[in-house]
Design goal:
The chain is mainly β and 697 residues long. The protein contains 8 helices and 54 strands. It has 5 domains: 63-156, Immunoglobulin-like, CATH 2.60.40; 203-267, Immunoglobulin-like (Sandwich), CATH 2.60.40; 273-337, Immunoglobulin-like (Sandwich), CATH 2.60.40.10; 342-412, Carboxypeptidase-like, regulatory domain (Immunoglobulin-like, Sandwich), CATH 2.60.40.1120; 421-694, paralog of FGE (formylglycine-generating enzyme), CATH 3.90.1580.10. Residues 1-20 are annotated as: Disordered.
């Protein structure tokens, strides 16, 4: 209930207080006028203080700036903003200002300066003078003027504006010496004049001749006729006097400008006669008065007014001599027919149907006797299917000569050009093979599907070997390979060494084998067969006769072709092999190879020294055993389209290469067959190689 009571008290109306106005009494007139006079004095005193204080504040806060103008005449200077001149100085408050200067004969200059806090400051304005007005003349006029390396014009040049300062002028005019002058241009629109006299670049020469009337030429250009005074430009010159029926007179001159000379009277010599001399046949030796002059056709210079003895001679022909006399400047042509001297040559030619040519001209077939001029002749004998022969013969008059030529078949000639056996610089023996000379230059590679052990990559395909080639009789030994790579190691297996000098080099890649071939070619001055880039084989040159690996076709031909048949195994066509036919996985190799040829013994657990077994029918050792062999070809499966491949070399590059032949680790019938093909790229302990090369053809 007490809350309701207090609310009732707050709602009671508030009674306003009463306000009583005070009485107003106005001031009298004197009292109100006194403050007004005092206020007026205050405003006057304040204004005077302000007028005095502002300049004093500017003076106290301003800085002194001296403006110096570099010019040869008085200059007018102006400064932007509030700047009070004070003699040669200006009073300014710190800040940015534009300063301008002008003077007669100078380019006006306006620049921006910064006035700092220092009490006294200075700025210098350098006015650039206006160009000077230069008049240039030369004697003679027409000279080219070059100012500081730039063409200025041709004299006379009137009032040219040129920048003030030092300059270099070059004056050039035809037939005058160049002149260089230094010029200091005053500028400021002031006129200047320069005159230059050019000195002649010639000397005058007095020229006379006997007889007179000769044409005068200086360096080939006509200058008049004798007698004459000739102006000749300085330097090395040649003066020539010419007159019909007289020999030209020439003299080299070293002309110095201004050094005039008199050449006196020059006596001209009557011109020589010209004899154009030919002979039949041409090429005869010519002498005049006993001195050799050359060979016909020939042009001779004949001194006029006397006789000269002209003689012509040529091997196989009689000598011709006559006397000739020509008048001055006379020309004459003569042809002398030389009489041939002959000798008899008896040719014995076999076969009788062969054609005989003398100097390219067919004279008949077979043996005959010919009377030929007593000079060297080229003799050629040819017959289709035979290698042509040529030689040189020189008949002798009165003496019968005999020449016997027997042609060889092309095959005989090819063999004759190449040794049947070579021993190279690392003691390798290579035999020459000519597949086309045998009955099986064309044969079939691969094996029939019916052959036991035949693999899918042994596709039958025909091959034709046309090129003769050399093939190493043995595999490359460790000792031979170490001449190329001294640190090579073939390794060992289960305590059995593969590393002896006379064992075949193994544990090497196809790249290493091919690189050995290139090294051997370079060592013997032969063109490398394989292309190399930074030690990597990247292809081959099929026309090279350098060392290489045997092609797969060459290896197959050398191993398989025999008396018109293809061998299945190195020893024949029956399996198993007879005792010690080749080095295979025999009874002693079981703990190394794991599989063996039961009952077979060859006497070696791993590889044998090369040549330990009998050679095959081609005289080649270990072609079907001991170690398998890298051959040249990139590995591929042959096409069965029946097309004959001639001297196949395979692709230029590839990932894997063909391996042919069995090794000491092989024992199965499929591996021992001569048609067996393997492939790889890296080294193996049972893969080596032998070298080959094409014969020179």
């Amino acid at each position: 209930m007490s809350g309701a009571h207090s609310l009732s008290e707050r709602n009671d109306p508030i009674q306003p207080a009463s306000i009583t106005p005070s009485a107003f009494e106005p001031l009298d007139a004197a009292a109100s006028a006194a403050p007004t006079e005092r206020n007026t004095r205050r405003w006057i005193l304040g204004g005077a203080a302000l007028l005095f204080g502002l300049p004093m504040a500017f003076l106290l806060s301003s800085r002194s700036l001296e403006v110096v103008v570099e010019a040869q005449v008085p200059a007018e200077v102006s400064v932007s903003g509030l700047a009070v001149p004070f003699g040669d100085r200006y009073l300014l408050r710190p800040g940015q200002y534009q300063v301008s200067a002008t003077a007669p004969g100078y380019h006006p200059l306006t620049t921006e300066i910064t006035v700092g806090d220092e009490t006294s400051q200075r700025t210098t304005l350098v006015l650039a003078p206006l160009p000077g007005l230069v008049t240039i003349t030369t004697e003679p006029p027409g000279a080219t003027v070059i100012l500081d390396g730039e063409p200025l014009g041709i004299t006379p040049l009137e009032a040219l504006p040129i920048e003030a300062g030092p300059h270099q002028l070059l004056f050039e005019a035809p037939r005058y010496l160049p002149v260089t002058r230094d010029l200091e241009v005053n500028g400021r629109n002031k006129a200047q004049q320069l005159s230059v006299a050019l000195a002649p670049a010639w000397a005058t020469y007095e020229v006379n001749s006997e007889p007179p009337g000769a044409d005068i030429l200086v360096d080939g250009e006509a200058q008049g006729q004798t007698p004459a005074t000739v102006e000749i430009i300085q330097g090395q010159r040649e003066i020539t006097l010419q007159k019909p029926a007289f020999a030209p007179w020439r003299q080299a001159l070293e002309v110095t400008a201004g050094a005039d000379k008199d050449l006196g009277t020059i006596t001209l010599t009557p011109a020589a006669g010209i004899l154009s001399l030919n002979s039949t046949p041409s090429g005869a030796n010519v002498t005049m008065n006993g001195e050799f002059q050359g060979q016909t056709p020939l042009e001779l210079t004949i001194a006029p007014g006397r006789s000269h003895r002209i003689a012509l001679s040529k091997p196989g022909y009689g000598r011709s001599t006559e006397t000739i006399e020509l008048a001055a400047a006379q020309t004459e042509s003569r042809t002398v027919v030389l009489k041939a001297q002959t000798g008899d040559v008896k040719f014995s030619i076999a076969p009788a149907s062969a054609e005989l040519r003398v100097n390219g001209r067919l004279v008949g077939k077979g043996s005959r006797t010919l009377a030929l001029p007593a000079v060297a002749h080229r003799i050629e004998v040819s017959l289709p299917g035979y290698a042509a022969q040529s030689q040189q013969v020189t008949p002798r008059p009165g003496l019968l000569q005999k020449v016997a030529i027997t042609l060889q078949t092309e095959q005989q000639a090819r063999l004759a050009r190449n040794k049947p056996e070579l021993e190279n610089s690392v003691s390798q023996t290579l035999l020459l093979f000519d597949p086309q000379a045998s009955a099986m230059g064309d044969f079939t590679m691969g094996a029939s599907r019916r052959d036991a052990g035949r693999r899918a990559n042994e596709v039958l395909h025909p091959v034709s070997l046309q090129r003769m080639f050399y093939l190493q009789t043995t595999e490359v030994t460790n000792a031979q390979f170490r001449e190329y790579q001294a640190d090579h190691k073939s390794g060992q297996i289960e305590g059995n060494s593969l590393n002896r000098n006379d064992q075949p080099a193994v544990a090497l890649s196809w790249q290493q084998a091919a690189s050995f071939c290139n090294w051997l070619s370079k060592r013997e001055g032969l063109p490398p067969f394989y292309r190399e880039n930074q030690g990597i084989i990247t292809g081959f040159n099929p026309s090279s006769t350098g060392y290489r690996l045997p092609t797969e076709a060459e290896w197959s031909w050398a191993a398989r072709t025999y008396k018109g048949t293809l061998l299945k195994f190195p020893w024949g066509d029956v399996f198993p092999p007879p005792a010690t036919a080749e080095n295979y996985a025999d009874n002693t190799s079981a703990y190394v190879t794991g599989r063996i040829l039961n009952g077979y013994k060859d006497g070696f657990v791993v590889s044998a020294p090369v040549g330990s077994f009998k050679p095959n029918h081609r005289g080649l050792f270990d072609l079907g055993g001991n170690v398998a062999e890298w051959v040249h070809d990139v590995y591929s499966i042959p096409s069965a389209d029946g097309a004959t491949s001639t001297d196949p070399l395979g692709a230029q590059t590839g990932d894997n290469y063909v391996i042919r032949g069995a090794s000491w680790s092989h024992s199965r019938i499929g591996e021992l067959r001569l048609s067996y093909r393997d492939y790889g790229a890296g080294g193996r302990d049972d893969v080596g190689f032998r070298v080959a090369r094409y014969a020179d053809e």
